[in-house]
Each structure stands twice: as structure tokens, then as C-alpha cells.
Amino acid sequence: MKSKYPVSRRDFIKLSSMATAGAMFLPFDVNFSDKAPAAMMRPFGRMKNKVTTLGLGGQASIQWTPDDVDPVAIIEKAFDLGINYYDTSNVYGPSQLYFHKAFENLNLIPGKPNYNKKLRESITLTSKTLMRWGKPGWKEMENVRNKSNGEDVETAAQDIKRTMSQIFGDGEGNYPEGSYVDIFLIHSLTTIEEVDVLYKGLETPLHPDENCGALAVLRDYRDGTDLTGTNPKNEKLIKHIGFSGHNNPEAMIDMLQRDDYGLLDALLVSMNSNDHLYFNMQHNVIPLAKVKGLGVIGMKVFGAGTMYNEVPGFSRDPDQIYRKVGSPTLPSDKLIEYVLTSEGIDTLIIGIGQIDDDPLKCQLTQNYYASQVKPNAMSLEERKAIEAKTAQVSGGRTNFFQLDNVGLTPPRAINQVKVDGKTRLTWQTAYAGANPISHYEIVSNGTVLGTVKHQPQVLKRQPFVFESNQQNLTNVTVRTVDSEGNKA
Fold first, then answer.
1. Angle, vertex CA 255, rays to CA 462 and CA 148, nearest 5
2. Is there a contact between 220 and 206 (Cβ–Cβ < 8 Å)?
3. Contacts of residue 183, Cβ cutoff 8 Å, sequence gap at least 6
4. Could you give the residue ranges of the DSSP H alpha helices within 425-476?
5. 379 and 419: one domain?
6. CA dihedral defined by 404, 410, 412, 418, rounded to 10 degrees?
7. What per-residue confidence (pLDDT) applies to 24?
8. Count of CA atoms in the C-beta half-sphere (13 A) of 124
9. Is 406 within the bounds of a domain?
């Protein structure tokens, strides 16, 4: 077989420009090798493992598989490239089962004579649960979803074991000793009501005979404890806990601020060049996650395909999978580079619709080379140009999964009290619009009394504080000021 990987990113750029122009043949001045150049790695929050800048998403053709696509080959090609971050879920149909088949071929099933422990320890494997409750017997609640592709799954604990069985075991509930995932995420957090359920048994007393949220259960399966009564064998099946979200920054901030227990290590978050047009992640959720030490994984770089004029909405059929490499008018490499040069992003997962030995036609090869960028590789001018371009795609309505823009908001829950002869003001964080928040102005009767620098509010119980020696302040308000001087 002919060599299939460009030897440098410079060669890749030539290929990428030809691919988006619709070229049919490889250029003569590009050199190829049997092996891809070593993947660029980045630190991953407080976790010890480093991650490649590109991770493989478990959706696209791994979930909705066209007849002429082999999903196992996609996973194996990612390993061949040197990618070390892998993502799947209990609501991705057969995705976990395809990982099992690939892992069998790659000797990643523990307990087998040829088990490659070194390779297993070199990758970060993530799965997810959309179950909010930890135990069975829960009642339906408004704005609280509980969902799994497992027919008999009622709880997060059952989803954990389903993951182990589907990826490492027989798919019937059994799995070998030594099975684990590196990260298990609460999937697609959307509402404050879901956060309330998830923290039951942590913020409230934990009684073995009462129900609790999924987080308390995940802690048991991380630590090998049985505080919830759901882990009688004291199994350790997950190494880190996190959550994902692409809809509601308010709920995601609430989830982070209520973690007073050191539980959350990872965040999977939507991020693309149209994020600023919506209730955005880049100035609200991501900075808080980084301050709290989480590893941050980006997703939805192409707006779930909508950047390429797909019908808005998540794929529900193999025919809806986008199988080309970018488009002549919107090269995919710049969209990838944009996300990976966004502050706080450690790695980026992308679902793959099409692989090919011809790098001009291979989404995975193209995405891999595009992701070999340093965090500061793109200038502000380049970023603005990309934002302007993608804002024209579908009228800027590419991020159908994300709440509409709320703009810069005033501080929340402002409280004024007298303490030791002083006036004390406290407030909860404001939300940023298109620009990051700079500071807060404290104003009384039109006079600015002082300012407080904005920084991510780590815990809900630790609000922003301003104190004044003046005891009889009237008509006091706190205004949010962003980096461009806009106020709310």
C-alpha cells in the first residue's frame, strides 16, 4: 500500500487547500510517509494524563453508520494516527459496541492473554450517562431527563456497568476484571432542575434507603466505596468525573459552582466560531472550568454539520452524516484551528463520517493535521475574520443546540447589609455577552464608589464583595462592565 500520511503540516496545508478546491489527484510536491508525525499533546487540567489536540468523537458514522462505512476502521485509524482521546456514550446507539470490536483488534480487552496494558494506559477513554438519578424508583420531574439506550437501565450505576459490558465485556452485562473508563461524564446538562437532582446526596443527607443523584453514585464507582448502596462490590470503574453541555451556560455554571467536593475533573463543551452569537461558552463556562482545574474538551466545531448547510438538528439517520472534507467556501482546517486556539480548550473531539487512504478525501487525516496547532497560533485578526465568515452561514443560526444570546447582564442577587459600621454589598456573577467581563462598578446616586475586578466565581457560596465605610448609602447599584466598556 502506498504511503498515506503527509510528512509535515506544511504538506497538509497544500493538501487541505486542494481538497477544499475539489482536486482529484495528489500533488507531486507533497511528501508522504507510512506513519503520521507525532501528535501534539497538551496538559489536561489537574489530571496527570496529557491529551492529543484532536480526539475521536463517538457519533457521526460510529453511531449512524452508512452501509459502505466500517466504524471499527475509523477507530483503528485514529489509533494509527496517534490520537489518544476517545469519546462515546450510553445514548450513542451501537457506538460502545464498535469500540469493543476495535479494542479486541487492538488488544485492549483486560484479562486477555495479549492485553496491551501500556497502550490502554496511554489513552483517555470517556463515556457518558444521561441518567440524573442514582437509584431506581424515581418520579418523573419537569425539566429533568433520564435516558439511556439500555432497555432496562434506570440509573447512572446501571449505565456505568453497561459501558463496561459493551466496551470490554460480552454486551450482556458481564465484563472482565480490570475494566475501566478514564472519564465518565454526566451527559448534556441542560437545566438547573437537573443540577438540583444531580447533587442530591451531596448537598443533602445521604441515606442508603433513599434516592440520590448520579454524582454521589459516580463518586462511589470512582473511589471504590458504597456510600449510596449501589456499589456492593466496591468496584473502581471510573477514574474521573465530569459533565458535558452545549445548551445552557447558566446551568453549567451552576453545576461548577456547586461542586464544593472536588468531584468534577472534566468538561465537554460546545465551542465554535459562532459561539459569540449565542449565550456563549467561551466567556462564561470555560474560564470557570479552567480556574477550577478541569480538563476542557471542545465539541461542535462544525455546529453538528450545520456549518456545511446541513439541516439544523442532530443526525438521526446515516443519510444525514456529512462525509466531505470541509467545503470550497469554508475550509474545515481554519474552524478547527479557531477552537484549538480559543483560551481554555485542551482538546477537541470531532465525529467522523468518512475515512480514506487518500488524504484528500479522509476527514480524519485532514482533521488530525489541522489540529496540530499551539494555543496561540492564530492571531486576533484571523479569529475575527473567521467569525465574520461563519456568521454568514445559515444566517448565523448554526448553533441550534445553544440558547440565544442574552447579551451582557447585570450582576445577580445583589444584597446590601451593614456589618461593623460598614456597608457591604455582595452579588453573584453576571453573564458575559460577546466580550469578556472586565469589572464591576459600584454606584450610589450616580457617583462611582469603586470597582471590583471580575474573575470566575468558583463557588456559589463565595459571592463578589464590596465594602464601604459609608453607612447610609442610598440608590446603590452594581454595574457590569465588559472589556469594550459596555455596561449592564
1. 165
2. no
3. 124, 125, 126, 127, 238, 239, 240, 241, 242, 265, 266
4. none
5. no
6. 180
7. 56
8. 31
9. no
pLDDT tens by residue, 111-162: 999 999 999 999 999 999 999 999 999 999 999 999 999 989 999 999 999 9
Domain that holds residue 216: 5-396
Residue 216 lies in a domain: yes
* pLDDT tens track for 205-232: 998 788 999 999 999 999 999 999 999 9
Residues 6+ apart with CB under 8 A from 157: 134, 135, 217, 221, 228, 230, 231
Same domain for 24 and 62? Answer: yes
pLDDT at 342: 98
- Is-contact 64 367, C-beta < 8 A? no
Sign of the C-alpha dihedral computed for residues 165, 171, 172 and 174 taken in this order: negative
Q: Are 168 and 103 within one domain?
A: yes
- What is the three-state SS of 173-222? CCCCCCCCEEEEEECCCCCHHHHHHHCCCCCCCCCCCCCCEHHHHHHHHH
Backbone angles phi, psi at 105, to 5 degrees: -65, -30
Structural domains in the chain (count) = 2
Q: What is the pLDDT of residue 308?
A: 86
Q: Which amino acid, 324?
A: K
Q: What's the distance, CA 321 to chain centroid?
A: 21
C-alpha distances out from residue 411 to 111, 124, 285, 446, Å: 55, 38, 16, 17
Instruction: Give dist(CA 206, CA 151) in Å, integer.
Output: 28
Question: What is d(CA 298, CA 284) in angstroms, rounded to the nearest whole number?
Answer: 14
Give the chain's residues under pLDDT 70.
Answer: 1-3, 15, 18-30, 310
* pLDDT at 356 (0 to 100): 92
Q: Take residue 188 and report the three cell numbers written for it.
A: 448534556
Q: What is the pLDDT of residue 1?
A: 39
- Give the integer Cα–Cα distance in Å for 16 and 20: 6
The answer to whether residues 215 and 265 touch, using CB atoms and an 8 Å cutoff, is: no
Helix, strand, or coil here: 22? coil
The CATH number assigned to the domain holding 129 equals 3.20.20.100
Which pLDDT value is given to residue 316? 78
Gap between the Cα atoms of 185 and 244, Å rounded: 6
Report whether 316 contacts 64 (CB < 8 A): yes
Judge contact between 258 and 195, C-beta under 8 A: yes
